[in-house]
């Protein structure tokens, strides 16, 4: 499966966001530093093809997704949960919220 460069960049950014809290914890920073490191605990990707995105993330995260129907899957991680949700289902719950550009 070949990814469009924009999709690869988004996937890389999401992986970095999920991995960063595992690599650097606020507790491990210098006591004198007031810098807080944000932690994304429950990012949710809205997509037209849930299965395809799950197939992309399963080998990257080295785990199988937990499915809840065909419209939703999630990957629990140490930092939080990466959720993947169907744009069609999102549109049903919140009209005009999942319009594509």
Rounded mean pLDDT is 76
Rg, alpha carbons: 16 Å
Instruction: Tell me the CATH topology of the domain at 40-101.
Output: Signal recognition particle alu RNA binding heterodimer, srp9/1
Count of alpha/pi helices? 3
Shape: globular
Helix proportion = 25-40%
How far is the first residue's CA from the last residue's CA? 23 Å
Largest sheet report: 4 strands, mixed
Structural class: alpha+beta
> In CATH terms, what is the architecture of the domain at 40-101?
2-Layer Sandwich
Beta fraction: 15-25%
Q: Which descriptors would you attach to this protein?
A:
alpha+beta, 101 residues, 4-stranded mixed β-sheet
Notes on the structure:
- With about 100 residues, this protein is an alpha+beta fold.
- The protein has a domain at about 40-100: Signal recognition particle alu RNA binding heterodimer, srp9/1.
- Helices cover about 40% and strands about 15% of the residues.
- It contains three helices and four strands; from the N terminus they run αβαβββα.
- It has a four-stranded mixed β-sheet.
- The model is unreliable at about 20-30 (pLDDT under 50).
